[in-house]
Write a structure and sequence with these properties.
Among the domains are: about 110 residues, Vaccinia Virus protein VP39 (Rossmann fold, 3-Layer(aba) Sandwich); about 35 residues. Helices cover about 40% and strands about 15% of the residues. The strands form two sheets. It has a four-stranded mixed beta sheet, covered by helices on one side. The longest helix has about 35 residues.
C-alpha cells in the first residue's frame, strides 16, 4: 500500500501515521511518499487499486493526473475517485480520462447512507442541519468516479472473420499450387519422345518373298 500527497507537511504526517500504526498492518507493506503528478516518472510501480479523494479541484493538473493513472494502473485494475462536481471541473476531468482511452463511470447514488444524508442536507439548505449550515452540492457532495482500462474481450465475430480470411488464403494457395503442378506435368509430357508406331517394329520382308 502506497500513500501519497503533494504537500510535504501532509507527507510527513502520513509517514508518522505509518510508523505509529505499523503493528496493525500485519504483513502488508505500507509506505508514504510525496507525489507531484506533473513530475511522476513511474517509480512507485503499478497498482490494481487506486483510491483518490478531491483530486480534480485544480483544472490545470487534470492532464497530469490522467497520465499518472495511465502509467500506474494495471490493465485489470480500478480507480475509485471521490470528488464533488465543482461547477464542471469533475466532468472535464472525466472527459479527459475517456479521451485517453479509459472507461469512466460517474455515480451519484453509490451508497444508501451517503445518499440519505445528502438528501437531508439538501432539504435543510440554509439551516444548521446536522451542524452544517452551508451545505452546497457543487462543492460538498462527493461523486464516485470508477475508472479502468477497457476489458480485453475475446470476439467470436473477429475470430470468425480471421478464420474465414485464413481459409480463403489457404484455398487460393492450394489452387495456385494445383495449377503449377498441372503446368509442370504438361511440360514434362511434351518433352518425353513418343514411342515408335507398331509399323516401325515390323521387320522388312526378305528379298524375293511374295505374299500369298
Amino acid at each position: 500500500m502506497v500513500l501519497t500527497d503533494v504537500n510535504p507537511t501532509v507527507e510527513a504526517t502520513l509517514q508518522l501515521n505509518v510508523q505509529k500504526n505499523a503493528a496493525a498492518f500485519s504483513r502488508t507493506k505500507v509506505s508514504a511518499h510525496m507525489l507531484h503528478w506533473a513530475k511522476y516518472d513511474g517509480h512507485l510501480g503499478y497498482f490494481d487499486v487506486i483510491i483518490a479523494a478531491d483530486c480534480t479541484f485544480f483544472k490545470d493538473f487534470h492532464g497530469a493526473l490522467v497520465e499518472v493513472l495511465q502509467g500506474a494502473l494495471t490493465h485489470r485494475g480500478m480507480v475509485f475517485m471521490f470528488n464533488p462536481a465543482r461547477h464542471g471541473s469533475l466532468d472535464r476531468f472525466a472527459d479527459l480520462t475517456r479521451q485517453a482511452g479509459l472507461e469512466t463511470l460517474v455515480e451519484y447514488h453509490y451508497d444508501d447512507v451517503v445518499w440519505a444524508r445528502h438528501q437531508r442536507l439538501t432539504e435543510a439548505a440554509g439551516t444548521p442541519a446536522e451542524g452544517w449550515t452551508a451545505y452546497d452540492t457543487e462543492t460538498c457532495f462527493p461523486l464516485l468516479l470508477q475508472i479502468r482500462w477497457p476489458p480485453r474481450m475475446f470476439s467470436w465475430r473477429a475470430a470468425a472473420v480471421a478464420l474465414a480470411a485464413t481459409g480463403a488464403m489457404l484455398w487460393a494457395a492450394a489452387s495456385l499450387l494445383s495449377q503449377m503442378n498441372a503446368g509442370r506435368r504438361r511440360r514434362t509430357e511434351r518433352s518425353v519422345p513418343l514411342p515408335p508406331s507398331r509399323a516401325e517394329h515390323v521387320p522388312p520382308a526378305p528379298a524375293g518373298y511374295r505374299a500369298t
